């Protein structure tokens, strides 16, 4: 009996450590949330220079060069959803005041919803996300007021639901095209496994495969500009798909995606 | 946020009422608060928990289903994957990357397309097949591994207790 009590005592100590770690993590997340909006205001891209030291010439010269072609940007919150959120904001922005294109996207959304149901997803787990996605999309039919879009994407209720639905589209697309994409997986045995661990859960970061799948699923090309310490003169552009001519551009710095605007 | 969570919880409640999985009953404790549920879980057949009816509460966060609920047994239950205070520790109650007991990478994880039903079904499988690697209750895991008949005895006692016998 004594040993049992001791065991329990140890368990509560472990428990305290777990709780401290959790509390610290929550505090860090709060700090990030306070400092960075989900999707930030339009700012000049060369303000990024402030983030790098004077002697960091690789980054500074790449930023200066890049800002000649991409004058403006919006930062997104680094919460693991940044690729999806950046893409969604910029994509929705290109659809504002274009009811025909919005209708085309709605048809696609309905197609993916029925594909998900074919794959065995319960409608009560999918419909809320789809409904919010479509509801917010429809608000953009007859407006070009960017404040409305900023509001939609900074309200976590609508913003996060849009992110979840894009994640579901990627999951659905990958599962239905797994013959091709399975070759890209390293640590997962099945596409279903990969999607349920790396695509569907919120806050999981995006990799190449997510980007390729999303742009193919929606047939919306995207250009990713890689800004890193690699010893080159310019930030490296990469279009998805390769031979496309995108309107949507996203800046990638190791671990994070922000929206950028081509002049 | 809470509005969407409420809508989802109501849809799941309806679904669980119309098509209840075998051996499981679950619903809000009170109509005033859909974020606190009670579930009754029947011990799976052919296991020492057979015939028991165990009560566990589920607590849902405001951003459910983006984040998972937490689950805690009210009935006394001695099990490797249940903390001595009743909290359930299984992988589906945690998003990937959040590894309180070092789950295997292939284990089922929380995401917004999981559901209360899937959690409860996972809990039933957990009762049938305890995972004694990196347990929540070290004593229970040790006994399960080293003295199965004693473990089974304690389980059967908890069954009688769960039935008020």
TrEMBL record, chain A:
<feature type="site" description="Interacts with free ubiquitin">
    <location>
        <position position="212"/>
    </location>
</feature>
<keyword id="KW-0645">Protease</keyword>
<feature type="active site">
    <location>
        <position position="256"/>
    </location>
</feature>
<feature type="active site">
    <location>
        <position position="79"/>
    </location>
</feature>
<dbReference type="InterPro" id="IPR042468">
    <property type="entry name" value="Peptidase_C65_otubain_sub1"/>
</dbReference>
<keyword id="KW-0378">Hydrolase</keyword>
<keyword id="KW-0788">Thiol protease</keyword>
<protein>
    <recommendedName>
        <fullName>ubiquitinyl hydrolase 1</fullName>
        <ecNumber>3.4.19.12</ecNumber>
    </recommendedName>
</protein>
<dbReference type="GO" id="GO:0006508">
    <property type="term" value="P:proteolysis"/>
</dbReference>
<feature type="domain" description="OTU">
    <location>
        <begin position="71"/>
        <end position="263"/>
    </location>
</feature>
<dbReference type="InterPro" id="IPR016615">
    <property type="entry name" value="Otubain"/>
</dbReference>
<feature type="site" description="Interacts with free ubiquitin">
    <location>
        <position position="257"/>
    </location>
</feature>
<dbReference type="GO" id="GO:0004843">
    <property type="term" value="F:cysteine-type deubiquitinase activity"/>
</dbReference>
<dbReference type="InterPro" id="IPR019400">
    <property type="entry name" value="Peptidase_C65_otubain"/>
</dbReference>
<feature type="active site" description="Nucleophile">
    <location>
        <position position="82"/>
    </location>
</feature>
<comment type="similarity">
    <text>Belongs to the peptidase C65 family.</text>
</comment>
<dbReference type="InterPro" id="IPR042467">
    <property type="entry name" value="Peptidase_C65_otubain_sub2"/>
</dbReference>
<dbReference type="InterPro" id="IPR003323">
    <property type="entry name" value="OTU_dom"/>
</dbReference>
<feature type="site" description="Interacts with free ubiquitin">
    <location>
        <position position="226"/>
    </location>
</feature>
<dbReference type="InterPro" id="IPR038765">
    <property type="entry name" value="Papain-like_cys_pep_sf"/>
</dbReference>
<keyword id="KW-0833">Ubl conjugation pathway</keyword>
<feature type="site" description="Interacts with free ubiquitin">
    <location>
        <position position="228"/>
    </location>
</feature>
UniProtKB/TrEMBL annotation, chain B:
<dbReference type="InterPro" id="IPR016135">
    <property type="entry name" value="UBQ-conjugating_enzyme/RWD"/>
</dbReference>
<dbReference type="InterPro" id="IPR000608">
    <property type="entry name" value="UBC"/>
</dbReference>
<dbReference type="InterPro" id="IPR023313">
    <property type="entry name" value="UBQ-conjugating_AS"/>
</dbReference>
<dbReference type="GO" id="GO:0005524">
    <property type="term" value="F:ATP binding"/>
</dbReference>
<keyword id="KW-0808">Transferase</keyword>
<keyword id="KW-0833">Ubl conjugation pathway</keyword>
<feature type="active site" description="Glycyl thioester intermediate">
    <location>
        <position position="89"/>
    </location>
</feature>
<dbReference type="Pfam" id="PF00179">
    <property type="entry name" value="UQ_con"/>
</dbReference>
<comment type="subunit">
    <text>Interacts with AUP1 (via C-terminus); the interaction recruits UBE2G2 to lipid droplets. Interacts with ubiquitin ligases AMFR/gp78 and RNF139/TRC8; recruitment to lipid droplets by AUP1 facilitates interaction of UBE2G2 with AMFR and RNF139, leading to sterol-induced ubiquitination of 3-hydroxy-3-methylglutaryl coenzyme A reductase and its subsequent proteasomal degradation.</text>
</comment>
<keyword id="KW-0547">Nucleotide-binding</keyword>
<comment type="function">
    <text>Accepts ubiquitin from the E1 complex and catalyzes its covalent attachment to other proteins. In vitro catalyzes 'Lys-48'-linked polyubiquitination. Involved in endoplasmic reticulum-associated degradation (ERAD). Required for sterol-induced ubiquitination of 3-hydroxy-3-methylglutaryl coenzyme A reductase and its subsequent proteasomal degradation.</text>
</comment>
<dbReference type="GO" id="GO:0036503">
    <property type="term" value="P:ERAD pathway"/>
</dbReference>
<dbReference type="GO" id="GO:0061631">
    <property type="term" value="F:ubiquitin conjugating enzyme activity"/>
</dbReference>
<protein>
    <recommendedName>
        <fullName>Ubiquitin-conjugating enzyme E2 G2</fullName>
        <ecNumber>2.3.2.23</ecNumber>
    </recommendedName>
</protein>
<dbReference type="InterPro" id="IPR050113">
    <property type="entry name" value="Ub_conjugating_enzyme"/>
</dbReference>
<keyword id="KW-0067">ATP-binding</keyword>
<comment type="similarity">
    <text>Belongs to the ubiquitin-conjugating enzyme family.</text>
</comment>
<feature type="domain" description="UBC core">
    <location>
        <begin position="4"/>
        <end position="164"/>
    </location>
</feature>
């Amino acid at each position: 009996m004594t040993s049992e009590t001791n065991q329990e005592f140890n368990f509560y100590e472990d428990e305290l450590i777990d709780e401290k770690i959790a509390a610290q993590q929550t505090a860090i997340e709060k700090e990030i949330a306070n400092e960075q909006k989900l999707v930030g205001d339009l700012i000049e891209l060369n303000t990024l220079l402030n983030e790098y030291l004077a002697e960091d010439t690789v980054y500074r010269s790449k930023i200066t060069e890049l800002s000649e072609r991409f004058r403006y940007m919006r930062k997104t919150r680094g919460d693991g959803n940044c690729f999806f959120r950046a893409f969604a904001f910029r994509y929705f922005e290109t659809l504002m005041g274009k009811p025909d294109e919005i209708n085309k996207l709605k048809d696609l959304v309905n197609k993916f919803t029925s594909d998900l149901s074919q794959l065995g997803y319960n409608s009560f787990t999918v419909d809320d996300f789809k409904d919010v996605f479509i509801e917010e999309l429809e608000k953009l039919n007859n407006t070009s007021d960017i404040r409305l879009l900023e509001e939609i994407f900074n309200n976590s209720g609508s913003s996060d639901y849009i992110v979840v639905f894009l994640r579901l589209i990627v999951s659905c697309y990958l599962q239905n095209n797994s013959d091709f994409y399975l070759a890209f997986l390293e640590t997962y045995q099945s596409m279903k496994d990969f999607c349920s661990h790396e695509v569907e859960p919120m806050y999981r970061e995006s990799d190449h495969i997510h980007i390729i799948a999303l742009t193919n699923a929606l047939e919306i090309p995207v250009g990713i500009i890689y800004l890193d310490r690699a010893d080159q003169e310019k930030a490296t552009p990469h279009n998805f798909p390769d031979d496309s001519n995108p309107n949507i551009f996203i800046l990638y710095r190791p671990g994070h995606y922000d929206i950028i605007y081509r002049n | 946020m809470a509005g969407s969570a409420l809508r989802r919880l109501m849809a799941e409640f309806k679904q669980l009422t119309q098509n209840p999985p075998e051996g499981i009953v679950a619903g809000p404790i009170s109509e005033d608060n859909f974020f606190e549920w009670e579930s009754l879980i029947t011990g799976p057949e052919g296991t020492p928990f057979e015939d028991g009816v165990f009560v566990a509460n589920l607590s849902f966060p405001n951003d459910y289903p983006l984040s998972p609920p937490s689950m805690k047994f009210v009935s006394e239950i001695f099990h490797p994957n249940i903390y001595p205070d009743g909290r359930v520790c299984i992988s589906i109650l945690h998003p990937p990357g959040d590894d309180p007991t070092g789950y295997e990478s292939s284990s089922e994880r929380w995401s917004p397309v999981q559901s209360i039903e899937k959690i409860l079904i996972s809990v039933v499988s957990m009762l049938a097949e305890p995972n004694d690697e990196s347990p929540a209750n070290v004593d229970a895991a040790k006994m399960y591994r080293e003295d199965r008949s004693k473990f089974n005895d304690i389980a059967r006692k908890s069954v009688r207790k769960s039935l008020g016998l």
